[in-house]
Design goal:
heterodimer; A: mainly alpha; MetI-like fold; 9 helices; B: Rossmann fold; six-stranded mixed sheet; four-stranded antiparallel sheet; 15 helices
Chain lengths: 212, 318
Amino acid sequence: METLLKMWEYIASNPEQYFTSIWQHIYLDLISFIIILAISLPIGYFAAKSRRVSIPVIISVNIIMVVPTLSVLGLLLPYTGFGAQTAIIGLVIIGVPFMTISMMTAIRGVNPLTLENAAAMGMEPWRVCFDVELPLAFPTILNGIRVTSVTLIAGTTLATYVSAGGLGYYIVNGLGMNRMEMVYVGALTVALIAICVDLSIASLQKRVLNKY
Amino acid sequence: MANIALEYKNVYKKFEGSDRYAVSDVSLQIEENDFVTILGTSGSGKTTLLKMVNRIYELTSGTIELFGENIMDLDVNEYRRHIGYVIQQGGLFPHKTVEDNIATVPKLLKWDEKMIKERTKELMELVQLDYETYRKRYPNSLSGGEQQRVGIARALAVKPRLMLMDEPFGAIDAITRSKLQQELLRLYENVQNTILFVTHDVFEAILLGKKIIVMDDGKVQQYDTPYNILLHPANEFVSRLVRSGDQFDKLRALSLEYLTEPANEEEIHDGIRIDGLKHLNEALLLMLQNDASHVIVIGDDGNVKGKIEMSALKQLLQ
């Protein structure tokens, strides 16, 4: 109770900074997520279709996944400097492997007979893809979006190390100054955002799956 | 002489990476409005023979002609829209409602909405699915039999030039299957369409087909009426295949017309009458029940079509 009160006082002492941090956090996530989708959806799609694409993709994904988030940022700093751009590039590097693999799995999960049947009815290849294949893969793609977005929201706490802002500021500085209420403000807000995003995607997924 | 709907001319098919022909030197003609079943075991090439027609498989050599046109010369998508296609479980789109599934090809052909709605209604009536009850349902909430009805309605949507059916009733329980078979026959009588129907079930092939293509090892073993296939098998393979089935199944599958012969006045007067739409098993039953040596076949119009002799039945069962 005492901690909660302290947290509240802390936020109240500088609400503007609190909301700016939240906005920065969400902003970094959104931008990097859009870039991740733009990269992962096509790569994942073609990896599902052809072995020649999937083998190099799986190997690179495995290599990227073993590199810790913090060291990705460290490796980037000399090249991209401090600021949002470094955080975004780092987040993209972290998110792309998850999303690519999910996209690949989702596309592979579509029954090939359904696709054959769509073509046999005279649908053009692009129509088979957009009208049948992607809608059928959509619930599984949402799974990937769920995992990736939660990973991103958590990962964005490290953005503060490259001076890109976000809620990580409270955690890192709170730890440094040994002010636990600051750490809690940051951590709980991040957790809250992650839970909200996770639940809303889950409910969307449920709605789609209930249909078919 | 009826029109030739579909003609295979020296058709070969070899799949990449395989050293044997899946279909080898097939030449045959299918007449317009005929119901032809393709019978064979798995690996006989029966499905390959079918799927070359809508160009899911491209043929290795030879030609296939639909109403005299080489199918390879036609625009593949435009061509496929006029070929009805039904596979196991109907191959319905699970993310589309019954209504939208049926409307698939009409939408591709850019029919206007009112016309699509009317046609959908009409088709659902034809396959005995209540329009209001089913139109908004998704395929996974339907039984196997209902899904298959939707599949058939969808394939019939634009009055196709040809219907291809690939073991459509393969995954359906025996009672529902038998019902669907009867309905398909009734449908066939009503809509008049050329149908090519693949099955591995001897009984189904005889029951549905006006003609049967027996396939083995990629080659056509025999292409003939069910009656001739049963009574005059072309070779050892066909004879083994048709004998593997139950003898009574054959009677159940064969319609009366195969054994109907002209009857004289006295025979017509004395004979017990049987509805011409029944099958030979019922003729046998009637003769046994009444200790008769023949029955009189009555056509749809109420006129006498002829008689069936017990001796003819005996010959069939030998």
